[in-house]
Amino acid sequence: MKKEKIVNDLFKLQDLKYRDFQSRLIPDIPKEKIIGVRTPGLKKFAKALAKEEDIYNWNSDFVLFNDYYFYEEKNLKALLISIIGKNSFEFTINETKKFLPVVDNWATCDLFCPAAFSKTPDKTYAEVLSFLKSTETFTVRFGIRTLISLFTGENYFLYKPEDFNTTGDLVASIKTDQYYINMAMAWYFAELLVKHFDETIYILKDKMLSKEVHNKTIQKAVESFRISQENKAVLRKLKIY
């Protein structure tokens, strides 16, 4: 299937009010590069597209093309990687590594959740560690997002990176002025506080995070309905002024 036809089909799903809304949420992308396709419609379109033979064989004009113009083109590619590679870690990780360098906004990054990763946690965790070392903002954010999705539950204590006692310690060692990485870090630690408060609170008590990440972590955790009032009181006392 030709890339031009896919783009034309995306425009058939256009919602101009939604485009205006999206452009306010993603200020880094010029408005003219946003078509305005709602996520449910885009997911439905991706599933239908994945059934077509040339897409499924991953040799079409669209999937080989990496010079995307429209925001929705990247989102569609992210969805196709997940759908088509749902039963193949090798396919998924190879395409993920090709795709991440072109991700240039938080929304595409956070939409990209490859299905195969949850089926192969050991391999996925090893790859996530490499993503965290990247110099690319959204590759690092993607790594942290994957940790949030797959490695903050009961399995948190099963995976330990080399040279660190916990994955949390590793993430805490990331020092950057990149806003989208720092916000992902705060999200990550807030999630750990929800699920493993007693085992995570030392990161705040020991001031292992930058002031920005530290305070944003507390804010997100205090706003959560999943943390007790008692623990919220502890968190409030740890805010850095």
Structure description:
This protein has 241 residues and is mainly alpha-helical. It has 2 domains: 1-107, no CATH class; 120-241, no CATH class. The chain has 15 helices and no strands. Helix 11 (179-195) crosses helix 14 and helix 14 (211-223) runs antiparallel to helix 15 (229-237). It starts with a helix and ends with a helix. The model has no long low-confidence stretch (mean pLDDT 93).
Quick recap of the structure?
The protein is an all-alpha fold. It has 15 helices and no strands.
Features:
mainly alpha; globular; 241 residues
Task: Describe the SSE topology.
Elements (H helix, E strand, L loop, with lengths): L2 H9 L4 H10 L13 H12 L2 H4 L14 H14 L4 H11 L6 H6 L9 H12 L4 H14 L16 H6 L6 H17 L1 H4 L1 H4 L5 H13 L5 H9 L4
Helix pairs in contact: 3-5, 5-6, 8-9, 9-11, 11-14, 14-15
Strand content: under 5%
Overall pLDDT metric: 93
What kind of sheet is the major sheet? none
- What structural class do helix, strand and pairing data support? mainly alpha
Gross morphology: globular
In the residues, how many domains can be counted?
A: 2
| CA(first)-CA(last) distance | 56 Å
Total helical elements: 15
Note poorly predicted spans: none
Q: Work out the helicity level.
A: 55-70%
Strand elements, count? 0
- What is the helix/strand order? HHHHHHHHHHHHHHH
Q: Using only CA atoms, what is the Rg?
A: 19 Å
Organism: Candidatus Gallitreponema excrementavium
Protein name: DNA alkylation repair protein
InterPro entries: ARM-type_fold, DNA_alkylation
